[in-house]
Amino acid sequence: LARTPSRDVLLVSAIITVSLSVTIVLCGICQWCQRKMGKRYKTSLETVGTPDSSRGRSEKKTIKLPAGGKAGNAAPAPGQPPHDESDRKTEPHSSVSDLVNSLTSEMLMLSPGSEDDEGHEGISRENLGRIQFSVGYNFQESTLTVKIMKAQELPAKDFSGTSDPFVKIYLLPDKKHKLETKVKRKNLNPHWNETFLFEGFPYEKVVQRVLYLQVLDYDRFSRNDPIGEVSIPLNKVDLTQMQTFWKDLKPCSDGSGSRGELLLSLCYNPSANSIVVNIIKARNLKAMDIGGTSDPYVKVWLMYKDKRVEKKKTVVMKRCLNPVFNESFAFDIPTERLRETTIVITVMDKDRLSRNDVIGKIYLSWKSGPGEVKHWKDMIARPRQAVAQWHQLKA
């Protein structure tokens, strides 16, 4: 009888010890995962084990439905399937696969140029964010009022993983007169709440115009990077009172027509820590002179962390819209700096009596457009080989 209580005590102690150990281990794993994987893992855990109220809050984060938007625009974020209550109950391990899928999608979104990879068509290539604005007309004062409110989910254009957005406002076809908002530093969800007035504008002329908004990323030492644009014909808007809109941003187009194309090659030598840029030729360049031609040459800037490091340029080709250059330039770029390096190629028109005109530009780096990123990735994947590609010149 004396041994029985001792055996029971030992058994109870063992059970308590094992339970505490398991609890500590699980708690440690949970905290470690949350620190390492961030909010996505936490959201996945909440979906499995929290009340419906908590699960509802996490779902709202994946819905791209801004205040004032239409319900038809609500959709889960790319790479995240909508939660199903029945699946949550019948498949207790489904959150693990959801977590893997969401993390995979996140890594693909963070991978430069991943939109061009095959087999990932579900990831939107044109997710440029959205902008909220309002427009109305005061008939008594003949004034058009445009208010820029805010933007959401803008893409990061800087190496720091953010942007410095501002908005340009035009009434097309007039592009000489524009208004601009303030720059919002390091903000992908900026709030402007700025009002702009187009005074002395007869209503008959207003309805012939197109309200054009262009969102850009401000760069102090280089050209501002376009983020996206929105255009809305004013003859399709009831201007008798202020109308508020949410519009998805679209890729910026060059309203002045094609600026031409440039063929160039890149050759990366990892052992020599160098990149050779060969400016081969251009075609269908935009005529910048009164005589219907141009005197083109090409400037090549090496940039590191948005700072200019080195510049080189070709000779000037007189009165030619399809010049052949065939000039090569070598730049020393250590491997550890490669990811934060940008090569800016500018096709210029030489003027003797006035300032040289910019015909078009190309930005080659990890963060450029799909075509530029593809060329950069091909260069890295094929070291010591000259990889050539045509590029459309941009404003």
TrEMBL record:
Q: How does it sit in the membrane?
A: Single-pass membrane protein
Q: Which parts of the sequence are annotated with region: Disordered?
A: 44-98
Supply one GO CC term from the record: phagocytic vesicle membrane
Annotated signal sequence range: none
Looking at the record, the residues that make up the C2 domain are 127-247, 258-391
The GO annotation for biological process reads:
calcium ion regulated lysosome exocytosis; calcium ion-regulated exocytosis of neurotransmitter; plasma membrane repair; positive regulation of transport; regulation of calcium ion-dependent exocytosis; regulation of endocytosis; regulation of insulin secretion; vesicle fusion
Biased composition range(s): Low complexity = 66-77
Q: Which family does it belong to?
A: Belongs to the synaptotagmin family.
Q: Which PANTHER family match?
A: SYNAPTOTAGMIN, SYNAPTOTAGMIN-7
Q: Subunit details for this protein?
A: Homodimer. Can also form heterodimers with SYT6, SYT9 and SYT10. Interacts with calmodulin (CALM1, CALM2 or CALM3). Interacts with CD63; required for localization to lysosomes. Interacts with APP.
SMART domains membership: C2
Where does it primarily localize?
membrane
Quote the protein name from its UniProt record: Synaptotagmin-7
Q: Name the InterPro entries on file.
A: C2_dom, C2_domain_sf, C2A_Synaptotagmin-7, C2B_Synaptotagmin-7, Synaptotagmin
Q: One GO molecular-function annotation for this sequence?
A: calcium ion binding
> Does this UniProt record's set of keywords contain Membrane?
yes
Q: Which SUPFAM superfamilies match?
A: C2 domain (Calcium/lipid-binding domain, CaLB) (SSF49562)
Query: Where is this gene product found?
Result: Cytoplasmic vesicle, Phagosome membrane; Cytoplasmic vesicle, Secretory vesicle, Synaptic vesicle membrane; Lysosome membrane; Peroxisome membrane
Q: Which Pfam families match?
A: C2
- Biased segments, Basic and acidic residues type: 82-92
Tell me the domain of life.
Answer: Eukaryota
Keyword annotations of the record: Calcium, Calmodulin-binding, Cell membrane, Cell projection, Cytoplasmic vesicle, Exocytosis, Lipoprotein, Lysosome, Membrane, Metal-binding, Palmitate, Peroxisome, Phosphoprotein, Repeat, Synapse, Transmembrane, Transmembrane helix
**TM region positions:** 12-33
